[in-house]
Amino acid sequence: SQKIEQNSEALNIQEGKTATLTCNYTNYSPAYLQWYRQDPGRGPVFLLLIRENEKEKRKERLKVTFDTTLKQSLFHITASQPADSATYLCALDGSNYQLIWGAGTKLIIKP
Amino acid sequence: DGGITQSPKYLFRKEGQNVTLSCEQNLNHDAMYWYRQDPGQGLRLIYYSQIVNDFQKGDIAEGYSVSREKKESFPLTVTSAQKNPTAFYLCASSYGLDRANEKLFFGSGTQLSVL
Questions:
Q1: What is d(CA B51, CA B95) in angstroms, rounded to the nearest whole number?
Q2: Would you place residue B96 in the very low, low, confident or very high pLDDT band (cuts 50, 70, 90)?
Q3: What is the CA radius of gyration of chain B?
Q4: Contact assessment for residue A67 and residue A53, using Cβ atoms and an 8 Å cutoff
Q5: Would the CB atoms of A102 and B42 count as touching at under 8 Å?
Q6: Is the peptide bond before B8 cis (omega within 30 degrees of 0)?
Q7: With a CB-CB cutoff of 8 Å, which residues 50-69 of chain A face chain B?
Q8: Beta-carbon count within 10 A of A16 CB
Q9: Residues of B in contact with A35 (CB under 8 A)
Q10: Chain segment B35-67, per-residue pLDDT in tens
Q11: Residues of A with CB below 8 A from B95's CB?
Q12: Are A4 and A105 in contact (CB under 8 A)?
């Protein structure tokens, strides 16, 4: 069955450093992948979408890569700030136009 | 401001009781969705709707029901048949079902707990 994995352990990063989050998938060939940010008790907020024919996408301090050979997407936040602390979710297109979601990785940026 | 409004923020259900979660959007989106979020798990799709008066079951529809009488509204009823309803419920919308160039807009969620 299709499976998406994100690191379940919280990621602790020092302010100013680059945070890198991983999204791995198996038994699957998605046409695109999305990343969302979710704060406690709130709904997810869309950040970036990357398609299978795109190697990299950037938006301000955010960068996403998509390696269809490794079946992996990396999400980078450069010059991280405490305000970047949140849970980050990845989602891939599944059958019948539905998204398949990872469980998310909690990112903690320490001042 | 355009967006999706979910209410209530917190809801408690007694055994054998049906409860209804509200979801309203003023984004003029055609597609609407209900997801369930449990700790340590990815979002799971309960129901979705492409147009008014039409909706489809998602992966975990058992014990839930929906209606789509208006484009702006997509209420979710958690019935007594749902034996494990405690979860964070999220409503979302998009311009259409084809998400190749789409993103989902989410409400702020409803936390449902069992008394």
A1: 11
A2: confident
A3: 13
A4: no
A5: yes
A6: yes
A7: 51
A8: 11
A9: none
A10: 999 998 999 999 999 999 999 999 999 999 999
A11: none
A12: no
B62 phi and psi angles, rounded to 5 deg: -60, 130
- CA angle, residues A91, B106, B90, in degrees to nearest 5: 85
Amino acid at A97: Y
Name which of A4, A51, A97, A106 to mutate to probe chain B: the one with the most chain B Cβ atoms within 10 A of its Cβ.
Answer: A97
Instruction: Say which residue the tokens 């003023």 belong to.
Output: B26
User: Nearest to residue B92, comparing CAs of A31, A105, A44?
Assistant: A44
Residue in B43, B107, B23, B35 with CA at minimum distance from that of residue B64: B35
Put simply, the answer to whether A34 touches B100 (Cβ < 8 Å) is no
Residue B42 tokens read as: 């990815």
Closest of B64, B74, B90, B88 to residue B24, by C-alpha: B74
